[in-house]
Design brief:
Layout lengths: L6 E5 L4 H13 L5 E6 L6 H14 L4 E3 L9 H8 L11 H15 L4 E4 L18 E4 L9 H7 L5 H11 L3 H12 L8 H11 L1 H12 L23 H11 L10 E5 L2 E5 L14 H10 L1 H10 L12 H4 L2 H14 L24 H4 L1
Parallel strand pairs: 1-2, 1-4, 2-3, 4-5
Antiparallel strand pairs: 6-7
Helix pairs in contact: 1-2, 1-10, 6-7, 6-9, 7-8, 11-12
Length: 370
């Protein structure tokens, strides 16, 4: 197969995970020539821009700012907000993700073969964005399984079991392991034997061996990795979880984004802590009610701007306008409910508070595609 220049990119969301991934790859795989980018909506918290500046210093490289609605004098979000006549994005209609994140990213990479590094941790159960464009391939360095779901589906297609078995025999010289692998590969995917089971069994035997076999198999396809002769991440066996992320950022000097910092509040004489759980726009509709209260109390100017968008008649949260959410009785009720659902006793001992109502963290829009 003819070799082509393969671009390697990493999207910086302004959150802790993508920032830690940039530090991790720079430190462990300095030979990778990675392009860093940030999709700027114009509605980010100031802490987001600060972490980007810190990363640029550490990486010794500029992070390219991507903005939608080129030529529009205001913020990109406002352009589409006006275009859609005040229709606010929601979990059912996430036009902000498509217009402000996905489209600028896909324009940035164009039709070049691209490896996109995704900061999903080893303690998370989600896939993240997988592009439908065949020239973009996602890799997950923080997980035991670095491969995306589409790759695993192709690798485990029943008709490819013979090809995989042959590659394994060339790569693995240990007869006992080779026999174990061959037995697993011969098992056909079915309702009684799922893809996840097969993957787990193979990874439990030999992570590096599996990675090298997948890499060799991909050379028979048109995935971006097929254009590379070698790939250092096939030797990767690291599994990084939330605690590791904080350690990477603190030890590197990049630091943790300030909006994760735990802030104490008191309601009915009882103390609790709150913080923001994600990067992204300050008015992100994925925020929990307690995070809206955090925004109102910590950034009243931004909360006021979020309220102004509701003048169109649409609301950021279902069945409740922001002007009602900040009434004293309502704020007290939100804090009371939060304390009941989330035990803050352990959080008070930590500088940072990440989980809101014990809901799995996502990094805002970035979780959708990078």
């Amino acid at each position: 197969m003819n070799k082509r220049k393969v671009r390697q990119v990493l999207g910086i969301s302004g959150g802790k995970d993508s920032a830690a991934l940039a530090v991790y790859l720079k430190t462990k795989y300095p030979q990778l020539d990675i392009e860093y980018y940030f999709c700027d909506t114009g509605k980010e918290l100031k802490e987001t821009y600060r972490i980007i500046e810190n990363l640029e210093i550490f990486l010794g490289k500029k992070i390219k700012k991507l903005r939608a609605a080129k030529g529009f004098p205001g913020d990109p979000f406002d352009y589409f907000y006006n275009l859609y006549r005040g229709y606010l994005p929601s979990s059912q209609a996430r036009w902000c993700t498509r217009k402000l994140k996905l489209e600028p990213f896909e324009e940035f990479v164009a039709n070049d073969p691209v490896i996109s590094y995704v900061a999903i941790r080893g303690d998370e159960e989600r896939e993240g964005y997988i592009s439908r464009k065949p020239n973009i391939q996602s890799i997950f360095p923080f997980r035991k399984n670095i491969w995306s779901l589409d790759v695993i589906d192709k690798v485990f297609d029943n008709k490819n079991s013979f090809i995989l078995s042959g590659i394994y025999k060339k790569k693995i010289k240990n007869d006992r392991i080779s026999d174990m692998v061959s037995e697993i590969l011969c098992k056909k995917i079915s309702p009684d034997y799922t893809r996840s089971q097969k993957l787990k069994e193979l990874l439990s035997i030999d992570v590096v061996g599996f990675n090298k076999v997948v890499f060799d198999f991909l050379k028979t396809t048109h995935y971006p990795l097929s254009y590379l002769e070698t790939y250092p991440l096939t030797d990767n066996e690291d599994v990084l979880i939330r605690e590791d992320i904080f350690n990477i950022l603190e030890e590197s000097g990049v630091g943790v984004p300030g909006y994760y910092k735990s802030v104490e509040f008191t309601v009915n004489g009882e103390k609790g802590n709150y913080a923001r759980s994600r990067s992204g726009c300050f008015f992100c509709f994925f925020q929990q009610k307690i995070e809206w209260v955090w925004l109102y109390e910590q950034h009243p100017d931004l909360f006021k701007k979020a309220m102004e968008y509701e003048e169109s008649g649409f609301t950021w949260t279902e069945e409740e306008k922001l002007e009602d959410l900040i009434k004293p009785d309502r704020i007290r009720k939100i804090k009371e409910d939060y304390l009941k659902l989330n035990d803050n006793s352990s959080s008070q001992k930590s500088e940072f508070l990440i989980d809101i109502l014990n809901i799995a963290e996502e990094e805002g829009c970035a979780a959708c595609f990078v």
